[in-house]
Every structure is written in structure tokens, then in C-alpha cells.
């Protein structure tokens, strides 16, 4: 008879406690503890367990005595994915792809599975039937290749299959539907998700097969989130985007084999996900005449500079308290910039409604777009259009000073590449910058006033 024991787990971070707690002491979230049954049981047959390695005690090795060879990575046809993985798929790695339901995780992985032509890929789905997957595959432009589909939710059955099938890449869609007989609680619970991931991890390390697992993130925390697994896996990719817009961003949040500052951009079309190789062109709307309230800023996402359109609308507030609303830009930062414009620039924005929008549905955290935000607001307030050939790349401080930003050179070259004629940057960014390399006119400024005089007067 198995010894049963119950423990309380935080659904958000996986923290364990012997009794129920209202607030998780580890992550600070409220109402996330649930009770789960944990069975201490002997491993059953068919389960993936380490064999020889557990018997022999490991000896410490001097670091110079360790042989290291650069592992050969598998390049997928998807260059955006290769980039976020740090240059292709590493053998024996466990990659978690997290995202909200419906964002396109299954589509992305199926597309990759179909694109890897000369490899045996096993796509295990616990969510959709074989027919549904086939229907999806037919929508995609990639020709059907050596890709195998299996619908299964028991990890023991999956391991029994892979033992003789020997796939070169294993895809698990999704970890929340998987179930291991070693743990009693239901699929999607913290202990179940953790146990299944541990099993896939062992399988990946011992067989050298890369494993991709899909993890759903739900806002209400009804499923154990991928956060619980982040420390266990090698790489965490998050798939983000607004379900109502077509752009999707694949971001590296953890990578044992590369940098975490990488980013891939896709567009969801009727025929699957399309890679967006030159994002700036789509983030800047095409227009013939210059409109007031529009400024082009520069942001760096990962290692990629992007030019992005900031739209502002400033109008007299007719109903009591003026409204401030921003999409894609931090609302607190907008308040701060408005206060700076009021105090240092003398613009009377206190009685105005201000709406701010970052085009393309992106969320921008890079402070280098501050100057573009200020320019767009003042342009709308004064109703004077900014020439469409001007761009901005600087942070704005509380004193109305224009501050230096990182990677200014790549920002300038991106602006030049897209045909901008002039770019406003901070005077403090000029030091050490070889301006003779650029054809674009560089306008160094130190105060907000200089910018407005330069472009709006
Ligand atoms: P899906 O991959 O099922 O999302 P997830 O696995 O993250 O839950 O993506 C589903 C959405 O994508 C669905 O709303 C339909 C849309 N979609 C397209 O717009 N075009 C396509 O070619 C495909 C396959 C899906
Ligand atoms: Mg799915």
C-alpha cells in the first residue's frame, strides 16, 4: 500500500508548505495554495529512470581537465527561432515555450516540426486529436515531411514509445496535459507538472534528444504556471502578443546556451506564422502627408534596434479630471513625462486629455523612446507635424534634460537604413561616436527646448 501524504503547493511559483497559506511567502501572490496528494512510491516499469549513473559516485574534476567540444547545433529553417535559441537547437536540451492559450505555440512547434525535413520529429499532443493536427498542418505552407504525430498524455507510455521509435526531436504539447503515474494528483497540478518535466529532463540528458515542451500561462492561475518549471529547464522562451493583433514576439527569458536578450518577431497569418525579418518597416505606418502627434522613436529589443511609431492625441478635457491613457507604454512614465513637459517646457497639459499609443501592439520598456513620446505629445498639443524624416533616440530626465542611451550607434544605423534624414540624440552620446561613418544628420541636444525649437518651430 502506498504511503499517501498531502502537501500544499503555490500554483504560481511551486513553493511548498505543510499547511494552507493565504499568501505565498516566496512569490507574494495571494490565494495560490492548493492541496495535492503526493505518493511516495517505487518507480514503476516503463518509467525513464537513470541507470548506471546513480550507482557510481561522481568524482570532482579539475576544470582544465574537462574536455569540451562545441556541440553541434541543429539549425531549423526558422531563423527567428535559431536566433532566440542562441544559434540553433542544442542536443539534449530541454526548451520550454510558454504563452497564453491561443497565442500560437502549437502552430509554431508544428511548423518547426514540419520544416525539419531530414529529421525524425515526434510531436506528442495531449490537447488535440490527430485529425485536428493534420487539419492544421494542411493550412501551413510547409510541405508535410518526416513528422510523426502521437496523441498521448501518460509519460510512461510516451517513454515506452520513444524507446523503440528513437525520435531526433521530441515535442510535448502541453506539459499541463501530461500525467505521470508516480504522482497521484491530477494533470496540470504543480506536483504533476514538476514530475513530468523531471522525467523529460532525464530523458533529454540521457538520450541527447532535444525536447520542446509547451507550457500554458493563465492569468487566473488555474493551471500550474511555467514559472514552476523555469529553474529546471535549459531554455525558456515566452511567446507574447495581443491575440487581437497579428504580431507575436518570441522572447528568450532564460538560456543556458546563449544570451537572454534575443527576440524573434512573427506575424500570424491565415497560413500560419510568418517570420518578420525587417520589423521596422511594418512598425512604421506608411503615410503620404505628415500628421501632428506622430513621432518615430528608436527602441532596442534584445540585440535588435527597431524604429517604432509613437502616436499621441492631446485634446481639451471636457469632463472633469483629464484622462491619461497609454497603450504599449508605461502609464506612470507617461505621467512623469507630462509633468516634465509642464514644469520644464511650460506646456499647459494639466487640463488636457492625453492618449498615447505605440503602433503595432508592441510593449516598449526601453527608456530611449522618451524623447519620441515627448515630441509626439508636444506635436499634437501645438498641432504642428514633425517632419517624417526625423527620428528620436534619447531618454528624458526629471530636469528636462536629454540623457544618453545605450547602443546609440546601432540605433543611428537603423534609422539611416530606413531612410531617415536626421536623428535627435543626447549630447552626452556624442563622445566616442564616429559621426563621419553616418550619412544621416545627427542632431545632439541636451535640453528638451532645443528639440522643440529644432523640429516644431
Ligand atoms: P494555437 O497554435 O492553437 O495556440 P496555442 O497552442 O498557443 O494555444 O493557435 C491558435 C490560434 O492561431 C487560433 O486562434 C487560430 C490562429 N491561427 C491562424 O490565425 N492561422 C493559422 O494558420 C493557424 C494554424 C492558426
Ligand atoms: Mg496549443
Automatic annotation (TrEMBL):
Binding site for ATP: 99-106
Annotated region (Lon-protease-like), positions in chain: 353-457
GO cellular component terms given for this protein: cytosol
InterPro entries in the record: AAA+_ATPase, DNA_repair_RadA, P-loop_NTPase, RecA_ATP-bd, Ribosomal_Su5_D2-typ_SF, Ribsml_uS5_D2-typ_fold_subgr, Rubredoxin_2
Motif RadA KNRFG motif in this chain: 254-258
Keywords per UniProt: ATP-binding, DNA damage, DNA repair, DNA-binding, Hydrolase, Metal-binding, Nucleotide-binding, Stress response, Zinc, Zinc-finger
Domain RecA family profile: 70-217
Biological function: DNA-dependent ATPase involved in processing of recombination intermediates, plays a role in repairing DNA breaks. Stimulates the branch migration of RecA-mediated strand transfer reactions, allowing the 3' invading strand to extend heteroduplex DNA faster. Binds ssDNA in the presence of ADP but not other nucleotides, has ATPase activity that is stimulated by ssDNA and various branched DNA structures, but inhibited by SSB. Does not have RecA's homology-searching function.
Entry domain remark: The middle region has homology to RecA with ATPase motifs including the RadA KNRFG motif, while the C-terminus is homologous to Lon protease.
Protein's name in the database: DNA repair protein RadA
Amino acid at each position: 500500500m502506498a504511503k499517501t501524504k498531502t502537501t500544499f503547493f503555490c500554483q504560481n511559483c511551486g513553493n511548498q508548505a505543510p499547511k494552507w497559506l493565504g499568501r505565498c511567502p516566496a512569490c507574494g501572490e495571494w490565494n495560490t495554495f492548493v492541496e495535492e496528494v503526493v505518493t511516495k512510491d517505487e518507480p514503476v516499469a516503463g518509467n525513464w529512470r537513470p541507470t548506471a549513473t546513480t550507482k557510481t559516485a561522481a568524482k570532482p574534476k579539475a576544470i582544465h581537465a574537462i574536455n569540451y567540444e562545441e556541440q553541434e547545433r541543429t539549425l531549423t529553417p526558422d531563423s527567428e527561432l535559431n536566433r532566440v535559441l542562441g544559434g540553433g537547437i542544442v542536443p539534449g536540451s530541454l526548451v520550454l515555450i510558454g504563452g497564453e492559450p491561443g497565442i500560437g505555440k502549437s502552430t509554431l512547434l508544428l511548423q518547426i516540426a514540419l520544416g525539419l525535413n531530414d529529421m525524425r520529429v515526434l510531436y506528442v499532443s495531449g490537447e488535440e486529436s490527430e485529425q485536428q493536427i493534420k487539419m492544421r498542418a494542411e493550412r501551413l505552407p510547409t510541405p508535410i515531411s518526416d513528422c510523426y504525430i502521437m496523441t498521448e498524455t501518460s509519460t510512461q507510455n510516451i517513454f515506452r514509445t520513444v524507446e523503440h521509435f528513437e525520435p531526433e526531436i521530441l515535442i510535448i504539447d502541453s506539459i499541463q496535459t501530461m500525467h505521470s503515474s508516480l504522482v497521484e494528483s491530477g494533470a496540470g497540478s504543480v506536483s504533476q507538472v514538476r514530475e513530468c518535466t523531471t522525467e523529460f529532463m532525464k530523458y533529454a540528458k540521457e538520450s541527447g534528444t532535444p525536447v520542446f515542451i509547451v507550457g500554458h500561462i493563465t492569468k487566473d492561475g488555474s493551471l500550474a504556471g511555467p514559472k514552476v518549471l523555469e529553474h529546471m529547464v535549459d531554455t525558456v522562451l515566452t511567446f507574447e502578443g495581443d491575440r487581437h493583433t497579428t504580431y507575436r514576439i518570441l522572447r528568450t527569458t532564460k538560456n543556458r546556451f546563449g544570451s537572454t536578450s534575443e527576440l524573434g518577431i512573427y506575424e500570424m497569418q491565415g497560413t500560419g506564422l510568418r517570420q518578420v525579418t525587417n520589423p521596422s518597416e511594418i512598425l512604421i505606418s506608411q503615410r503620404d502627408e505628415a500628421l501632428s502627434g506622430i513621432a518615430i522613436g528608436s527602441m532596442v529589443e534584445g540585440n535588435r534596434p527597431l524604429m517604432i511609431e509613437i502616436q499621441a492625441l492631446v485634446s481639451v478635457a471636457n469632463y472633469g479630471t483629464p484622462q491619461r491613457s497609454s497603450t504599449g507604454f508605461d502609464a506612470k512614465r507617461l505621467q512623469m513625462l507630462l509633468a516634465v513637459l509642464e514644469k520644464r517646457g511650460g506646456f499647459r497639459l494639466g487640463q488636457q486629455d492625453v492618449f498615447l499609443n505605440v503602433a503595432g501592439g508592441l510593449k516598449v520598456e526601453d527608456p530611449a523612446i522618451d524623447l519620441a513620446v515627448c515630441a509626439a505629445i508636444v506635436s499634437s498639443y501645438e498641432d504642428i507635424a514633425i517632419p517624417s524624416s526625423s527620428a528620436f533616440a534619447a531618454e528624458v530626465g526629471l530636469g528636462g534634460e536629454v540623457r544618453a542611451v545605450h547602443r546609440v550607434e546601432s540605433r543611428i544605423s537603423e534609422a539611416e537604413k530606413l531612410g531617415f534624414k536626421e536623428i535627435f540624440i543626447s549630447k552626452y552620446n556624442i563622445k566616442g561616436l564616429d559621426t563621419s561613418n553616418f550619412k544621416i544628420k545627427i542632431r545632439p541636444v541636451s535640453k528638451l527646448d532645443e528639440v522643440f525649437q529644432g523640429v516644431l518651430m
